[in-house]
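Researcher: First entry.
Model:
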Amino acid sequence: MGAQQRVFKAKINSTKSLRKIFKAMELIAASRIQKAIGRVQAASPYANALTRAVSAVATQSNVDHTLTTEPENAQRAAVVVIGPDRGFAGAYSANVIREAEELVRMLGEDGKQVSLYTVGRKAETYYTFRERELARAWTGFSEAPEAAHAREIGEQLVEAFHTPVEDGGVDEIYLVYTRFISSIAREPEYRRLIPLEVVEAEDDSSVPEVRTEPTAPSFEQDQVFPLYEFEPSAEEVLDALLPRYIDSRILAALLNASAAEQAARQQAMNTAVDNADELIKTYTRLANTARQAEITQELTEIVGGADALAASGGE
């Protein structure tokens, strides 16, 4: 019985140690959520202003730009999967990968080849473990993405879009990420990044809206833009605006994913702390039961010994 008590006490101590780790990770994630939400909100005005600017140029110029023209026969699509660098976030990573796999399946049914890009070690590990080729992988900044990271990804994607399909280029580009709704709600989703279909974003929207249907660019019909004169030309203005617009959309997706990751980690660690408390209660109860059984056995042995002595003395 003493051995059982030692086993249960060791389990209790190890569970208490794990609980401290889980609690610390929960508090760290809780503190980072507010910073992540603040970054999402800070990026919104710039993204919305770019959306309005691109919308104004496109509606008033009738320019056929390569980034806004629907390909006649799309053959190859790039899918960018934005996941976390670290685990301990519950089903966060699995959900975004499941969404990406669903998109890959749909594109395959349309007869399109898929070129995979990943952000975050979890997404990269998932595909490399299954020996699936990756066009490019970025890691190390899922929790605190910056504009430079979005610019690097955007340049790589635009370069692939401008490359002929025969040389490994793509006709379409999709983003798969987790949209942050609140600290307890998040939703994995995919959006087509290129060709662009820009619609005017709401003032409180953290991610400018882009339609996923394969249609030409469309805009809000009731939106009234000022009259602009473009110098040197509307096409050159679009050349300057669209790369920045793409970078802002990628950054918005990265920031949403970062906030969703911290919220998922906080929720997962909170659940882990609760489970650890339950385990500690269970092990404590089992240890007390083993101790009671040990005491009962010792008393039984003492009483039995005393009865044996009394019987032998009476004889």
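Researcher: Second entry.
Model:
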Amino acid sequence: MTVLHTFAPMAAELPPNTELSSVRADLADNHVAAPTDKDQQELATIVAQARAEGIPLSVVVVPGNPGHDSSLRDLATELGQSTEGTVAVFSDDWIGTYSDSISRVRLEWAEDVAKYRGNHPEEAVTAFVDRLEQPEGTSWGVVTGVLLALTALAVAGLYFVKSRRDSEESAAPASVRGDAGSAQ
């Protein structure tokens, strides 16, 4: 039985002083839960614009930084279980996200520009949304396929050149194949 206990999933660790029920209630009206009314209004405008652009976003702002940045992702995941779309939880320097429609890779790509904004959640949310609205970057599957095809073509071309050179050398008369300097 101890083996099962060892591999049991850990309970979500939420940021300190976070009441899940009050955050859910705060998100209900405008998809924003922030500590001040000023933040609420500014962030609600950004979130409404993102939603109009097709990103079903909900934003939570946690004052300060929790002990571990993973607790922001835990909170986003807990909220995402009962909220459709994407949940982004911002602290002063970190961000945690959950989405039922955007891939983890794309979320983390957008997180990178939204981190370390200090006590400016509107800048962080704007940077996050701007990155999500950008078209997908390079398709590494396509790049890999093209490189493999070019490598195969280069190998086939070298094989062709080498086999042609070998057949020309074997077909040439012995006097031409011999030492050109000995004929002088």
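Model: Note on the second entry: Residues 140-171 form the longest helix (32 residues).
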